[in-house]
Amino acid sequence: MCNLARPWLSPDSFDRKEPPRELLMDALKAKQRALQLMPSALENIDSIGADVILAAILFFVNAELIESGWQSWRPHLEGAKKLLNMMQPYASFNEALRDYVVSDFYVYCTLSLSFNPTMPGVQTAFFAPTQVNPTLSRATNHFFCCPAQVLDILREAAQLLNTGGDEQVADDVMVSSFAALLKRAQNVDVLTWAREGVSPYDETEIQSRFLTGSAHRLATCLYIIQSTPSLTERVPDKVCETLIRDIYDTLSPMPDDDPNFKATGWPTFIYGTTATTPELRAWVMDRLKRLVAVCPWGFLYSAIDTLQILWGLDAEGKRTTNWIQQLKDLNVDFLMV
Prior knowledge:
Oligomer: single chain
InterPro entries: Fun_TF (IPR021858)
Subcellular location: Nucleus
Distance between the termini: 20 Å
Order of helices and strands: HHHHHHHHHHHHHHHH
Shape: globular
Keywords: Nucleus
GO molecular function, one term: DNA-binding transcription factor activity
Helix content: 55-70%
Number of helices: 16
Radius of gyration: 20 Å
Largest sheet: none
Protein name: Acriflavine sensitivity control protein acr-2
């Protein structure tokens, strides 16, 4: 509600009005009350159920993403991973609930690695490919609408990037590993995935899933190439240019009322990091504003702010080819989904 009550100052502005104080205070009080109840819930996990508590933690993460997506989501995410590691003794009261909650946490944990400055915290066996891929397959309509294979490749790439500072990891080994991930991403069969769990007669939904999944696959390929300068130097410029053009061509025809339109924020952001002309940057900002109109979550406003930081570095002549490392160096710690 606070975001809905904060319109842009003008159609061309990226600044917003302050929210009504009363509305903001009500939201913060409700959030504080919920946080105060969590310790008691954890003490009574046997009677309440681990699945229910996990769902509550997911709500906290979502609340932080609604607010801004900056930093404050991280403690909740780390707490969720610790709870997941403790859940084995607890029977699931609702398998469907657990599937959807775990799939959302997996998406958040994967994306939190992609360009944040801090190292990953607690790891959980729930996120091993043998565990999470069946979960994602069952939760066919999780909000991110991305093939499990692509998410797994993105997670591996981000984890590999986080080990890049280790002197024991040779540069040629890093390049070889990223190149293998790139090839895997290029070979993902998105159309087959788009048809899974969907009526073969529902061509509209299949097309929507195909476009959204394709955008994520293409953006992941571009992320892999851009994540390490050594690989960027070895990949022909034409490959990157084709990926950038394909992302644009995939996102452009998707109407705002498409049910998966809201799931295209991450590929839009990745595309935005490559935009160099005023026209393309205007297209990116217009699309992000349209996403905000459909899904008024704070992380989208943070994405707009972050792109302006990167574009500002361009204007100052300080931008490097490795924008991912630049964001980490600038301590730009937000979760983009």
